[in-house]
Write a structure and sequence with these properties.
The structure holds 2 protein chains of 2 kinds.
Chain A lengths: L10
Chain B lengths: L2 H24 L7 H14 L10 H24 L14 H13 L6 H15 L2 H10 L1 E2 L1 H28 L4 H23 L7 E2 L3
Antiparallel strand pairs in B: 1-2
Helix pairs in contact in B: 1-3, 1-7, 2-3, 2-5, 4-5, 5-8, 7-8
Chain lengths: 10, 212
């Protein structure tokens, strides 16, 4: 599973 | 951005505004757990430090500022302005039993061992249990004002909608954050008991009262 940890969520 | 995330954010914003208005209009914080509100202020403070380091969008920045501002305003109203109406005798949940394990877990299980990332992880874990003092207070008093149940419903629905947002983003964007998802599932499960009471009682016009 492609895990991306961008913080664009509130 | 997708419909589930937008609906979730708006539900969260509605909850925060409902609570602030309830306390301000009735000039009373009866039935509200000040401890939960302090935990939420801590959640927003530790999660939104990136306000100082990165700009994502006007929407993102605006919402973060509103969340933090309302959280601290609510804590101020409870512990300062309407302190006389604060139900300290029933708001007795031991929050150190939440903050300490959550703090330890944030150090052990995170995506990256950097200060900002550990604080973000701490805030994600803390948010999933931050409502417990409030649910505990309601179980002790055995009842809740109807406006308070609407606040709790919106608050519970927001993270449930985020679960759908994460399904959507995994399917369409390959975005996937295990920490946020697991904490979000735990958080939503904690509301299930309340959701049942809300749907079977409050939506039928009855007052929410627990079997004493």
């Amino acid at each position: 599973w492609d895990h991306i940890n961008q913080k664009d969520e509130l | 951005m997708n419909i589930f995330r937008l609906a979730g954010d708006l539900s969260h914003l509605a909850a925060i505004i409902i609570l602030l208005l309830k306390i301000w209009k009735t000039r009373s914080c009866a039935g509200i757990s000040g401890k939960s509100q302090i935990l939420f202020a801590l959640v927003f403070t530790t999660r939104y430090l990136d306000l100082l380091t990165s700009f994502i969008s006007l929407y993102n920045t605006f919402m973060k500022v509103v969340y933090i501002g309302c959280a601290y305003a609510t804590v101020y109203l409870i512990y300062m302005k309407f302190k006389a109406t604060y139900d300290g005798n029933h708001d007795t949940f031991r929050v150190e039993f939440l903050v300490v394990p959550v703090g330890g877990l944030a150090f052990l299980v995170n995506h990256d061992f950097s200060p900002l990332e550990i604080l973000w992880t701490f805030s994600i874990y803390l948010e999933s249990v931050a409502i417990l003092p409030q649910l505990f207070l309601i179980s002790k008093t055995g009842e809740a004002e109807t406006i308070t149940t609407h606040y709790l419903f919106c608050l519970g629905v927001y993270r449930a909608l985020y679960l759908f947002n994460w399904i959507w983003r995994f399917y369409f964007e390959g975005f996937f954050d295990m920490i946020a998802i697991v904490a979000g599932v735990v958080q939503t499960i904690l509301y299930c008991d309340f959701f049942y009471l809300y749907v079977t009682k409050v939506l039928k016009g009855k007052k929410l009262s627990l079997p004493a």
